[in-house]
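Components:
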Amino acid sequence: MSKSAQIIGLSAAQLSEKLQSGDVSAVAVTQAHIDRIADVDSDIHAFLAQSSEQALETAAEVDRKRKAGEELHPLAGVPIALKDNIVTADLTTTCGSKMLEDWVPVYTATVAQRVQEIGMPILGKTNMDEFAMGSSTETSAFGPTRNPWNTDHHPGGSGGGSAAALASFSTPLALGSDTGGSIRQPGAVTGTVGVKPTYGTVSRYGVIAMASSLDQVGPAARTVLDAALLHEVIAGVDPHDNTSLNVPVPPVVAAAREGATGDLRGVRIGVIAELQGEGYQEGVRLRFAESLDALRQAGAEIVEVSCPNIENALIAYDILNAAEASSNLARFDGMRFGRRVEPTDGRNISVDTVMSASRGAGFGLEVKRRILLGIHALSGDNYDAMFRNAQRVRSVVTQEISAAFQSVDVLVSPTSPTGASVIGAADSVSDGLLHSDVATTAANLAGAPAMSVPVGLGDENLPVGLQIIAPQLADDRMYRVGAALETTLQERWGAPLLAQLPELGQLKVEVSL
Amino acid sequence: MSAITRDEVQRLAALAQIDLTDSEVSELTEQLSNAIESAAKVSEVAKNVGDVPQMSHPVAVTNNFRPDEVVPSLTTEQALAGAPAVEEERFAVPQILGEEP
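Structure:
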């Protein structure tokens, strides 16, 4: 067991077994992924920074401890990549923005600390839309990431770097953040799994905030079980984050294993009537219909439920997101850290003019658009007309979702109405692309857990995802349903979806069930 | 008739303390007009949802106390590590008031 082509094709759970049995060393696993990044990332551009040396040190330490017979976490030695809005001491954290270009934080986010503490080598930081504002990773100040399924297409966003790193077999696990779909939608369009846990159940200490009432950190992986394994590492209360909930972590790994038996008898699944049909690509509709069949085959009862205002979630979301972002991004002022630029148009050099020049030079157009929209929504009469009304719509969307859970265990919809479009083709900085979040923002408004599971290839042979939403704190339910769907579909396909990935780089990756 | 004028965009940018180039003002006037028109639908939607409370946060957490214990914090050196300019172990910033230096 030493061939890199085999190692990088393994899931985190498979790697974990082989590491524990001594079949393969953590150094070999880490090196195989570093080599893969060197091979393919010039085409994909999933990474903004790499920390290969530290990753190999962590791996060597794990190997040494394992040899000495120390008790280690099952994921010790399994590499991971972090979205670049998760701060890491001694490793650049840019948030995809010129504002933070070359910024090296002096502390580490709790989630990064937790993966480090159990001995997961951190491969590097992944590309993202600037300050997580976008759905295609095209607003990154450092250039777009490309979709491993077709490098002319984007990998979704904002966490397109993490998703593309997984789909290109450059890492077995990654972390993302999801404010309106930024983990789930990239998962859907790259054929990977993306999870937004219940709001408040994963620490956000050290995660650069966009919209604090919506932001949630979560796991990204190639399988449902892998996501669950990482979920249990990062979840749990954190004294550094006063919004983190002091509640038990749901048994997501056990639920994923239970679901993997393919038995969903007794489970009631609600199809959201308003999130399907017109406006959804044909390939998305076909794969979604097949997935419902697969869930039925697994024994689940499928019923249609109506959440009439869920279609309006995006309208409320756009306002609330912009309002909160305009406040959160006030901290980037060029005074204590980040970019400082002096005005060159003859104005006096003062705090005011330097701040304005720094923010003018540091932020990209989409970030400026959202800050200005947020300030507009919070000022004067707009405060009532836009901001307060958006909060009332948020209320009603949440009530409708809660009401639906009176009659079903989980809700499902397509994750995104379309596959990934060609880079540069969509109007990436205005309304056009936001539409891809039409099905994902409701879970953020409601604080509900939600995940995307790959369900096949749609139009242009690009991946399609199915979204599962569960009630708050019942994250385990979606893992059970997600794993059952994965098992049932893979039995039909005879292999994981990513076995169909077009050839990339020098290695023919060996993917096994 | 666009939902927002160039002057209004410049006023918002001044409030946000963001310098904009002329071409950015043009682009943002168009983009924000679209965004504001689409956001305006929220009033219509809100009219039809009846008497529901405003919701600011998905989980209500109140009075979340922690023990008042001394824990290590950043050293001066660390706190200043990312500063654009430092003087006498402090953040050096441009003049704050408008008068000549």
